[in-house]
Write a structure and sequence with these properties.
about 700 residues; 24 helices; Arc Repressor Mutant, subunit A; 6-stranded parallel β-sheet; Rossmann fold; alpha/beta; single chain; 8-stranded mixed β-sheet
Length: about 700
């Protein structure tokens, strides 16, 4: 009997009736899921992963679905947009043929409150938090959980939160809980179980199906806005075409859409898509884009995921994505029904580093063609423990809760201890989020905890940079500030913003209303964090290898006008140094070492050599001649642990932290930050290259 034949015929027909044969991922998932195993599954974008896991899950729990008339399968996706799309796709498969109801629970929609409860409930981690917070009985009969796009949660605060939520859900149930985690971009499947799910290895099956797709890439520099419009018009030509343009920020999205809309022919079919738009607007955009024969959607990362907006003829990337996972997700949206991906990589007219951006694109393309993914072991994270500790107190209406009861939900994490939790709770008490009981090992709510609830900040672990609040003067929008400022600002406070002095009239969940006031020295400071710490070091290492590689075929992906400059740059570097040398140049003011080591490694080198006030980026170390000291390259250790004496100085607070990470004791914030240094497999490789290289002086390149 084949795996397909082990499914009930009506279920097999509902999910696979239109297919002549099953794809390998769909056939391979049936037996372990039917046997009740937990599964971590990796397969390429558009390979049918959703059907692969849902068909056997529906088959396994089909009788429970109609016995309980409650949600039986919980499907968790990282964004509301993907939740909405999944609901449409899954409903079309199981509703009429199997009489299975599919519903949504998130901040914009709650199908648990309307009519009969769904059998398959699709939600986000944050909405699962809300349901557990409210002790929702709709979760009582859940038998299986699907974790979609799990790479977006691995080694993140949201992922740690979800891991604790799954633990809390298991404790709520009186029966076993089966889980399945799926993604298109996972390097080491065992890491997903170790980070997210508390389960013995013998109960988990790992299924990996590499997706081989030819990538037709083209890299070019857009020197002026009109060049972008001309390129798009050339791509579309006289035939119907669908283009998806990815940007790295909302401002670029609006700018490019404006450029395209200046052409009357294109204007009706140009759309924008990003997180600040309302759900209704985003849904309308997705619908209109999918039905038009010729259309262009300019989007941020909101469309990286598997939202079905129809077949895309080509993907355009405006600026370089920060990592290979994001690159793969974006290009994976193109030509999903064929074995070939067309991607056009554009270096913006605003770029100040055209040569390096070109090489970054080539590094990403090279890794994608090889199917190579960066590997990081599971991180020791703590920020979500702050949020979960606060939640557990808030669930009981702020009443005092024993430390031992809070700790019960964290015991699955081997690096977490009672002593660490006590330090976290003490820090929260010192900042007025919790208060310690005078005679017992208990903590209850304090004033700032209720602010977190009022501002609905208690449920999520998004990065600080992704959460903002508007500042308005009357009907005029002055701009946005990070949402964590709500924890320190109050009505009546004077603030300095947009170059002027204001007094806060009112604070609402999504807005701060201000009015002009006289200058004062007592203005409350608006807090901002430093941005992230640069590109993934795997990219800088790959760039170095490309520069010194003998195979020049990779440069055929670069536009002719740009290719000659890139080749000339690489040839010049090869004349001055080889792969095991570190080129440097000296000017009248500074010495510059080109390490191609990444920001963290370059900073560590400077700290270990006591270099004062260096300028550091992903590629180089610039040292003032007045501070110049010889760098002892051969003294570098290849073991990241050997740099412990500089760990305190290596640490930086960045906007990638969540609100709850900033509430951690400083020693835990440092330990979290250092996970990238300690758990990235490429850090030792780059240190080894630099240790065994000699420095060589070169002319200015």
């Amino acid at each position: 009997m084949t795996p397909l034949e082990r499914l009930e015929s009506k279920i097999a027909s509902a999910f696979y009736g239109r297919f002549v044969s099953l794809r390998p991922v769909q056939e391979g998932a049936i037996d372990p899921i039917l046997a009740g195993k937990n599964v971590v599954l990796s397969s390429g974008t558009g390979s049918g992963k959703t059907e692969a896991v849902l068909a056997p899950l529906v088959n396994r729990y089909y009788s429970n679905i109609f016995e309980e008339e409650q949600p039986i399968i919980l499907y968790i996706a990282p964004t509301k947009a993907l939740v909405n799309d999944l609901e449409r796709r899954i409903t079309s498969t199981v509703s009429s043929s199997l009489n299975i109801r599919v519903g949504i629970r998130h901040g914009d929609r709650d199908d648990l409150k309307s009519g009969q409860p769904p059998h398959i409930l699709i939600t986000t981690p944050e909405s699962l938090e809300v349901m557990l917070f409210r002790k929702d009985k709709a979760l009582d009969k859940i038998r299986a959980v699907v974790l979609d796009e799990v790479h977006l949660l691995y080694n993140t605060q949201r992922g740690l939160q979800l891991a604790v939520l799954l633990q809390r859900l298991k404790k709520k149930l009186t029966h076993e809980l089966q889980w399945v985690a799926i993604s298109a971009t996972i390097a080491r499947l065992e890491n997903i179980q170790n980070f997210l799910c508390d389960a013995p290895a013998e109960n988990t099956v790992f299924l990996q199906y590499p997706s081989q797709r030819s990538i037709d890439a083209h890299v070019r520099h857009i020197k002026k806005p009109g060049d972008f419009l001309d390129l798009v018009l050339k791509i579309i030509g006289d035939q119907p075409a669908k283009l998806l343009v990815f940007t790295n920020d909302r401002n670029s999205t609006e700018r490019l859409a404006g450029i395209l809309q200046s052409d009357k022919k294109l204007a009706p079919g140009v759309f924008t898509h990003y997180s600040s738009l309302s759900p209704e607007v985003r849904h309308e955009i997705e619908k209109n884009f999918s039905i038009l024969r010729t259309a262009i959607c300019v989007a941020t990362s909101t469309l990286e995921l598997g939202i079905d907006i129809g077949d895309i003829d080509a993907v355009i990337l405006w600026d370089v994505p920060g990592n290979v996972e994001s690159f793969l997700q974006r290009i994976g949206r193109g030509n999903r029904r064929s074995a070939k991906t067309n991607v056009i990589c554009l270096i913006p007219d605003t770029s100040l580093t055209v040569m390096m951006d070109t090489l970054r694109f080539l590094a990403l393309i090279d890794m994608a063609k090889r199917g190579e993914m960066p590997v990081r072991s599971p991180f020791n994270l703590y920020g979500a423990f702050v949020q979960q500790s606060i939640v557990q107190v808030a669930i009981e209406n702020g009443q005092f809760k024993k430390i031992s009861e809070i700790f019960e939900n964290f015991t699955q994490f081997p690096y977490m201890s009672r002593a660490i939790l006590e330090g976290i709770l003490a820090e929260l008490a010192s900042n007025d989020y919790l208060k310690h009981h005078g005679f017992k090992n208990q903590y209850g709510a304090s004033e700032n905890l209720y602010k977190l609830i009022d501002y609905r900040m208690i449920y999520g672990n998004f990065s600080a940079q992704s959460q903002t609040i508007e500042v308005n003067a009357g009907s005029k929008n002055l701009g946005e500030i990070p949402i964590y400022n709500l924890l320190t600002l109050h009505t009546g406070d004077p603030i300095r913003f947009a170059g002027q002095d204001w007094k806060i009239r009112e604070i609402k969940n999504k807005m701060i209303q201000v009015e002009r006031t006289a200058r004062t020295e007592s203005s409350k400071r608006i807090r901002y964090m430093k941005k992230g710490i640069g590109f993934d070091p795997v990219l800088t290492e790959r760039i170095w290898q490309i520069i010194h590689g003998e195979d020049t075929a990779i440069f055929t992906d670069v536009a002719t006008s740009l290719r000659s400059d890139v080749l000339k740059f690489c040839e010049t570097m090869q004349r001055h140094c080889n792969n095991r040398q570190i080129p440097y140049e000296v000017t009248s003011k500074e010495v510059c070492y080109y390490t191609y080591g990444g920001y963290l490694i370059n900073k560590a080198i400077c700290l270990m050599n006591n270099i004062q006030d260096p300028e550091i980026d992903d590629i180089s170390i610039r040292i003032k001649l007045s501070n110049s000291v010889p760098i002892q390259w051969n003294a570098l250790s290849t073991n990241p642990q050997d740099y412990s004496k500089i760990f305190d100085s290596l640490f930086e607070v960045t906007s990638e932290q969540s609100v709850f990470q900033t509430m951690l004791p400083e020693n835990l914030q440092k330990e979290e930050f250092l996970q990238e240094w300690l758990k990235n497999d490429y850090i030792p490789k780059i240190l080894e290259r630099l240790k065994n290289s000699e420095q060589v002086k070169m002319m200015v390149v």
